[in-house]
Amino acid sequence: MKAEQFTKLKALLARVEQHSPFYQNKFKAAGLAVEAITTPADIVHIPFTTKEELREAYPLNIQAVPDEEIVRIHSSSGTTGKPIIIPYTARDVADWAEMMRRCMAVAELTAKDRVQITPGYGLWTAGIGFQAGVERLGAMAIPMGPGNTEKQLQMMMDLESTVITATSSYALLLAEEIRKRGLKDRIKLRKAILGSERWGDKMRTRIREELGVELYDIYGLTEIYGPGISISCKRGNGLHYWDDYLLFEIINPKTGQPVADGEFGELVITTLTKEGAPLIRYRTRDITRMLPEECPCGMAHPRHDLILGRTDDMVKVKGVNIYPGQVEDVLKHIEGISSEYQIVLDREEGKDTMLLRFEQQAGFDGAHLERNVKKYFKTKVGISIDTQALAIGQLPRSEKKTNRVMDHRY
Predict the structure, then answer these.
(1) Start and end of every AMP-dependent ligase C-terminal domain (predicted)?
(2) Regarding the domain delimited by 314-407, which CATH topology (the fold level of the hierarchy) does it fall under?
(3) Mean pLDDT of the chain
């Protein structure tokens, strides 16, 4: 932790102790006196904040300023329980716009760019977050929002969009439609800024080649402003995060203890300057690691690795913990397999079964690929599975996030 980060952390602790009933109750329950936090190492004595606690705080019990200072709210989808509602002050909105502007600058956008924004608007953070960053940079924002692929392609051609922001799943869907319709010569895209879900090397290669763009990973979550808290640079080796606004830690998700530099674990984030809904040691459930070496790009802001997966993405099959990232790691080593896959879990006669469905490239023998995947998966992951090769386009496509795991066991 840098000295200036610790100074901001101390100010944050004092602020929430005075103005946040949520943290007043939390610190009291933990027996924490904020004046006892005297060194950066003492951060381990501060209790974590969890997603479950934010759901219990519904709708606005996380708020740490008076109502008249709140200018906006955003919300998570609430697909797995109560939505999490996050209030923003004017400063929060401005800080987030600045982080998004930095992301656009790292991706080397200029005022001459025309940025087609396909993520959703409304309560979701992505669309309006991208728009704020693009406008702050001085580029042209094209606020399309999600879906309506026909209109997306028409506007992309007519307005000569140079940059697209999207989920990786929707970027792939658009790339496939452009190829099918023979529109590549009419598309002016040169960059794509993609986020909201993890995506593997094969998917990156397909999007890069079919759209003919430079790719940038952007990361964020509703609880921590939204997208734009980190982004990959042109070197593509990890994502730079804004350590003047945020404090990142990596912990062992089982023990809660810090891991060594360079080890994978769960990302924990503290919002150093946020006013409306400050979060202290928030467990994101995202799996990554810090990259302590200096980036060849020369940026001073530190880096974390790509998101490997989420702690709640893990499924247990035949007693073995499996993450979608492990599946992608198997498939990327086998020639002839495209980017899309689906895991189907079931139970037969009281025993787990796993079917791995994947799309094969044209000109490869499906039965041979099925045997190879089955063998390689057994070697790498340690369990026997069933496999099914499909033609490209047979697995479902999504305008948002792709659901990779279908669990029919419960």
Answers:
(1) 319-409
(2) GMP Synthetase; Chain A, domain 3 (3.30.300)
(3) 92
Q: HSE (CB half, 13 Å, CA atoms) of 311?
A: 17
Cα-based torsion angle of the residue sequence 357, 363, 369, 370 in order, rounded to the nearest 10 degrees: 50
- Of 45-59, 211-225, 244-258, 350-364, the one with minimum mean pLDDT is 350-364
- φ, ψ for residue 160, nearest 5 deg: 55, 55
In the chain, ranges of CATH 3.40.50.12780 domains? 89-309
> What three-state secondary structure class fits 55?
helix
CATH classification (class only), 89-309:
alpha beta
DSSP per-residue string spanning 193-251: EEESS---HHHHHHHHHHHT-EEEEEEEETTEEEEEEEEE-TT-SSEEE-TTTEEEEEE
Range(s) for CATH 3.30.300.30 in the chain?
A: 314-407
User: CA-based angle 107:112:114, to the nearest 5?
Assistant: 75
pLDDT in tens, 280-290: 999 999 999 99
**Which percentage of the chain shows pLDDT scores above 70?**
98
- For 30, the token pair is 């933990």
If you ran DSSP here, which 8-state letter would residue 254 be given?
T
Residue 79's pLDDT is what?
A: 55
Nearest to 163 by CA among 92, 239, 246, 231: 231
Instruction: State how far the alpha carbon of 184 is from the alpha carbons of 165, 188, 394, in Å.
Output: 18, 8, 22
**What φ, ψ does residue 304 adopt, rounded to 5°?**
-120, 165
Residue 152 in tokens: 């997306």
* Separation in Å, CA 388 to CA 219, 220, 254, 314, 409: 32, 34, 34, 22, 19
Comparison of pLDDT for 314 and 62, the residue scoring more: 62
Q: Kindly report the number of other CB atoms within 10 A of residue 160's CB atom.
A: 12
pTM of the complete model: 0.83
Query: Parallel, antiparallel, or unpaired for β 191-195 and 214-221?
Result: parallel
